[in-house]
Amino acid sequence: MDKNKITQLIQEAKITPELKQELLQMVEQEETLSEETIQKVQKRLASAADAVAQNIADIMVESATDKMNQDMDGLEKDVNDFQAELNKKADAIDLETTRKEM
Amino acid sequence: MKKSREFESDNDVEGSQIEGKERPMTLLEIGQARRKEKMQKAKTRFSGFGAKIKNVFKRIGGAGNTALDAAFAAPEVAKIVGQGVKKEMLTSAENVIEVGKAVGHGVKVGAETGAGLAVEGAIMTGRGVKRGVEAAGAGLEKAGQWLDKKDLEVSEWTDRKYEAMGRWTQEQWQNIQEKGRDVRQGFADGVEKARATYTHFRENRAEAAKQRKLADLRAEMNRSLEAIRWNEARYKEAEEQMQALEGIDNLSEELASASAE
To answer: Any CB–CB contact under 8 A between B82 and chain A?
Structure first.
């Protein structure tokens, strides 16, 4: 297996520097690359992909939570407005009651 | 009509804002002030409740991996949220929408009525005002038939007014409850989407890698991300992660074909 080509592919890949370093170390340990090493690298890539997928799902959950928080703010404002309006209406009736009482 | 001593002392306590008015005014003002105070208390109660609920959500969402963990941990997302709220508030709230009922409860307790709804709390405080007028009539050692008659008229008028207000309140309340349901549903949908995306990825990736169909899988994940388009910052994060995924998959494919040569 062409070690140089594999090394080059890893170096040119659009992955994080940390992952790149890790993979390069795995490859460099051997003089000539064995099928086993390639499998190891593939396995590492699969777990990295899984971690990224989990990140994406987490972001989606956080996003839903953000929206929820915003909606809760809106709901709280609605309730506050509602109570203020309720107070205003009650005051108006109080006042009118008083006026009629006079 | 003679001016009673009690009334003068009432005036002193309240520091009546409108001068030169007759007796019932002061009593009404007292009732009004009491009601305001009660409503304010109810409002404060709600503010604390709302903030605590928000903290629960922040914790669920902000704890990194635990967000997804939480989404997987229970069969229904709404239940998780409900339990968080429950634990936090030590109330019998079963899900987020219960916040609506809790507010009603706050108003109820604040208004010290036996009624279960905010609308009834409002009506009861209104009757409290009316009772103040009635008490004024009684306390004045029968100020005369005129006052009784007038009081009855005013009572009926006030009842009608508060009845109308009750209808308005109920309507407003229903709107708020409806919104609360929408909020909860939106949250549940969002988390469910995240769960589905991740599960789909886990279950299909191995097969996809064999069949070189990773691009299709990525495209499908991208479509899921469209669901959070409204939140630009989050979307950017997710998009970056998608690029990272693409980089990993591309390398994986290249290695596979290189080693097959």
So the answer is: no
